[in-house]
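Help needed: design a sequence for this.
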C-alpha cells in the first residue's frame, strides 16, 4: 500500500515548491519593473539655453554676432548642463563661414576698386 507513495512525493514536492519558486523569482522582478517604470517618469529634459537660439538666428543675419553669442552660449551650456549645444555649435560654424565669406567679399571689392583706379 505504501509502495506507490514514493512516486507521489515528486508530484507533491513539485506542486508545493513550484508556486514558491515562482513567487520567489517573480515578485522581485515585478517589483523591480514597477520601480523602473515609476522612476522613468522622474527624468526631465534639460532647459534649452536661449542664447544658443539667439546665436543660431543671428549667425544667419550677421556672422560675427553669431560667433560671439555661440561662444558665450557654449560656455553657459558647459557650466549649467542646459540643452542647446548643437544650436550653439552650428551657430559658430555658420558665423565663422559667413564672416569669412564677408571678409573675402570686402577684400575682393576693395581689390577690384584699387585695380580699376
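Sure. Designed sequence:
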Amino acid at each position: 500500500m505504501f509502495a506507490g507513495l514514493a512516486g507521489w512525493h515528486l508530484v507533491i514536492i513539485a506542486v508545493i515548491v513550484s508556486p514558491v519558486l515562482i513567487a520567489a523569482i517573480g515578485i522581485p522582478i515585478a517589483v523591480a519593473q514597477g520601480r523602473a517604470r515609476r522612476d522613468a517618469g522622474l527624468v526631465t529634459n534639460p532647459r534649452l539655453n536661449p542664447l544658443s537660439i539667439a546665436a543660431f538666428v543671428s549667425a544667419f543675419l550677421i556672422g560675427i554676432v553669431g560667433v560671439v553669442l555661440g561662444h558665450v552660449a557654449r560656455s553657459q551650456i558647459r557650466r549649467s548642463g542646459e540643452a542647446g549645444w548643437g544650436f550653439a555649435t552650428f551657430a559658430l560654424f555658420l558665423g565663422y563661414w559667413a564672416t569669412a565669406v564677408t571678409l573675402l567679399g570686402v577684400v575682393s571689392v576693395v581689390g577690384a576698386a584699387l585695380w580699376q583706379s
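The mean pLDDT is 80.
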